[in-house]
Amino acid sequence: MIRIETFGGLSVRGADGRPLSGAVAQPRRMAVLAVLARAGERGIARERLVALLWPDAEEDRARNNLAQALYALRRDMGDDDAIAGTKELRLDSDRVASDVAEFRSAVTLGQDARAVELYAGPFLDGFHVPGATELERWIDGERRVLAQDHARVLDSLARAASASGDATAAVGWWRKLAATDPLNGRVAVALMEALATSGDRAGALHHARIYEALLEQELDLPPDREVVQLAERLRRDAPVAVVAPASAATLTPVTPSVPATPSPSPRRRRLAWAALAGAVLVAAVSLAATLRVRTAPEQRPSSTPTASPLAAHAAPVVAVGHIAAYELGARGALGAPLADLLATNLARVPGLRVISAGRMLELVGRAGATSDTSAGALTVAARAAGATEIVDGTLYGRPDGRLRLDLRRVDLATGAIVDVRTVEGADLFALVDSGTARLAERLGSAVPSGSVADVTTRSLGAYRLYVEGVRRYYALDLAAAERLLGEAVAEDSTFAMAAYYWSLASSDLAAGSDRMVRAVRLSVRTSDRERLRIRAGWALRYSAPELAAIAESLATRYPDEVDGHLYRGASLVMAQDYLAAVPHLRRAMRMDSLALRRATPDGGARAAACAGCEARGHLIYAYRAADSLAAAERESRNWIRFAPASPAPWITLASVLDGQWRQGEAVAALDSARRVDSPGSVAAQDAVATHWIFVGDYARATELLRVRSDNGTPAEQAEGLWYLAIVDRERGRLADAVAAAKRFRALQRATEPVPPRGAAPSSALMEAVMLDAAGRHRAAAALFDSISRWRVPTLAPSHYARSRAWTMTHAANALATAGDTDALIARVDSIARYGMQSGYGRDQRLFHHVRGLALVARGADAAAVEEFRASIRSPSLGYTRSNAELARALLRLRRPAEAVQALQPALRGDVEGANLYVSRGELHELLARAWDAAFVASPTAVARDSASAHYAAVARAWRDGDPSFRARADSATSRIAALSKR
């Protein structure tokens, strides 16, 4: 049975559970099925469907469009009776099922739990049909009605669970309802009461704070009186925390003279939560609205290196907060280094979950106070990181040179002091070892072996430089960070984490690679968590196949750190398993509650490093690569909402809108990017130039790029020449394109290492591409092969294998065009071998592309089609040459409809990257031929108009090109005239 799923998106699946292709996958025709699914047994009039989907078309044409859509849908669904009726259309429920019909049935029958199970997210979430404004209004109305039904059944389930005394179930249902309506005071009170009844008084107070912050942030209103009164009652009735007595043999009692760590004022606390917890809840609501509730791998209990009593109950999640320092004299500031060392060492305690110092600095930085490491700021950051306890204290210098540290553990939910300890040591490292041992013993866990110095450094000077360098890194002061971290490595050349952050802060790619290799080599002497972080960063940078396993270990062992979940998602994106990456990236975004910049009072923005931003970037790319542009647009707009003063989300949105042919909106987004771009930045300029290339306005693109290529700095000139080569190729001026590519390579030569004999640097790639386009195929193949042989010693083997497989494939294309079949066959196994050494999914499939070229050369187009299909993972951001070769083979086999399906997503891709290797003019020409052939086989207005539109794009692109391209432009113009007479 065919199934239509409308909640959380729109998909149509066959009896085998796989998405249907063909007409069913086209947005307007999918919309027909969605409307019919919502209409249910009562059906919907043809006239209403026409008004929704073709409101601006002439009546006869609109009716004809609907008839064609219904015909194509019935054909591709494989059942002429799936859509029944003549004047009133409906789906045959015996042949087609839908979640929305089952949802309405469950609501009507009182099957509330089943209704909640079916409601996977808002109705048709992210689905968009360009130009169908009436349909958009209809979707908004139906979405509201269904969301209200969903809220009603959740309320019914929650009330029933509360009435029956099932506190656990009540908490679950009230939580779901709070996620759908986070500003509802009645629901907040009900959830707090259910949490308190279940024994989770701290959870109830935590929700009150989140509700209060979100209400202030979203509506600038005070919380409901009932919420405040309940929270006060819960605090008043809370049991008094009892501090365990210290052992006289090991501890010195904390004296009253020790200053208490100040807590933020109520007003400051509300503002902090509005920035931190509010963003967490918004992300959580977004996740709940789009994903089914399920037990994901990342939600399994974390494993620990050794058995620990902590595993017998819920282990606290600990953050290290402010360490005040007194009476240190010439020894200088030691509070920040001590806090960092303590967090590093506590993470070595088996079973203890500890927020890393870097994570704390990241959150403090993005709260808008990059230099504020006060108790209040660190407490807010600890809560945002998911900590349940914070360890803070006071450091004293003794007259005899020893150090004393008074530590205390504070429950973040209640503010109660859980434990106090005092330790002494000869130096900072001994002090941290003693403090860790006392805290581990109090928690009933094993004391980590060795010293913290064994996994960090024994140089206090190096550690001070490192801590300040990391703080500058998370404040995005990268120049200062690079200098400080370099000095730390100079102090101790074996300091692995300093080398790691030094590589991240590097302004030079080659230097960063050398530093990363050093960090990986030194990681054997770090703690388990830091070793995994270093190796995960290395594996992602160099497309190493080990990334998936490293990320799995990092996320499982340290579930409270965002890095593991981010790297998990990134590894799946790298493997091109795009949709599987979504839940991991969303979890990273949800954990990273301050997901971008926070506006400052003067209207500016303070920037800081942002794991959540990185996760969102991967997520948007994953949606684009899966050709799910509606979802990519939604995430881009969410990003803008969090960071309106950053150019990056506006540029990303413009690219997504271009892929949907919404040029006016894309230009508006680029205007916004230029307004907020920093002085001297060229990011927005590049985006504007690529937009004009994408839409075929080459005159505007050339005008922008000439200024930079002629008058800019050497780096700006090189960037301008790169894009000018693309413009000239798009216009069919190949001699000019080759010349621009050569100038680009010459400018880059001064900044690149001298390659070994017989090898060429990566800057020669554009020249090789343009030589191939200009018909100099053997010269291009030779240059591609030279590029593939350049191996930089400091780069990982996986990176070399990736480069080798990629450039050898380009050489194979050039040889295939030159007619050298024997050379193709010889390359297949080598490309397959190198591809499997890369962790990048595309590289592992490139040999299929080359095998397809060899089959084409033998005249075996049908077999070649299967190979080309096997090489494509992303239809829009993959290797576009595969789409083009697949379409050519399909056209030779007289299968034009399939050729159209292969080419249309490719035309939505970028103008560079993996899309660089076929010009957009060639894609338009192939699409024109495909639609033309489809029209000849079965004359329809759609096929004729589509063929004419793509022929027109060819004519515009190449009308001023080289003679051969002008001839193709003239041929396209002639064909438009011929089609207009049919």
Can you characterise this structure?
With about 1000 residues, the chain is an alpha/beta fold. Among the domains are: about 150 residues, Arc Repressor Mutant, subunit A; about 120 residues, Serine Threonine Protein Phosphatase 5, Tetratricopeptide repeat, CATH 1.25.40. A five-stranded mixed beta sheet has the order 8-7-9-10-11, sandwiched between helices. Strands 2-1-6 form a three-stranded mixed beta sheet. A hairpin with a 5-residue loop joins strand 1 and strand 2. The two termini are about 40 Å apart.
CATH superfamily label of the domain at 2-148 = Winged helix-like DNA-binding domain superfamily/Winged helix DNA-binding domain
Named at the architecture level, the CATH assignment of the domain at 2-148 is: Orthogonal Bundle
* Strand residue percentage: 5-15%
Distance between the termini: 40 Å
Question: Unreliable segments (pLDDT under 50, ≥5 consecutive)?
Answer: 239-313, 594-608
Q: Which fold name is given in CATH as the topology of the domain at 2-148? A: Arc Repressor Mutant, subunit A
Rg measurement, Å: 31 Å
Proportion in helices: 55-70%
Please outline the major beta sheet. Answer: 5 strands, mixed
Main β-sheet, spatial strand arrangement: 8-7-9-10-11
What layout of secondary structure does this protein have?
Blueprint: E1 2-5, E2 11-13, H1 27-39, E3 44-45, H2 46-53, H3 59-77, E4 83-84, E5 88-91, E6 96-98, H4 99-109, H5 112-118, H6 133-164, H7 167-180, H8 185-197, H9 201-219, H10 225-236, H11 266-275, H12 277-290, E7 317-326, H13 335-346, E8 353-354, H14 357-366, H15 375-384, E9 389-397, E10 403-411, E11 417-425, H16 428-442, H17 460-474, H18 478-491, H19 496-504, H20 509-522, H21 528-541, H22 547-557, H23 562-574, H24 578-591, E12 598-599, E13 605-606, H25 611-625, H26 629-642, H27 647-659, H28 663-676, H29 683-695, H30 698-711, H31 714-730, H32 734-749, H33 765-773, H34 777-788, H35 797-818, H36 821-836, H37 846-857, H38 861-871, H39 880-892, H40 896-907, H41 920-937, H42 941-958, H43 963-980
Parallel strand pairs: 1-6, 7-8, 7-9
Antiparallel strand pairs: 1-2, 3-5, 4-5, 9-10, 10-11, 12-13
Helix pairs in contact: 2-3, 4-5, 5-6, 6-7, 7-8, 8-9, 8-10, 9-10, 9-11, 9-12, 12-24, 13-16, 14-15, 17-18, 18-19, 19-20, 20-21, 21-22, 21-23, 22-23, 23-24, 23-25, 24-25, 25-26, 26-27, 27-28, 27-29, 28-29, 29-30, 29-31, 30-31, 31-32, 32-33, 33-34, 34-35, 35-36, 35-37, 36-37, 37-38, 38-39, ...
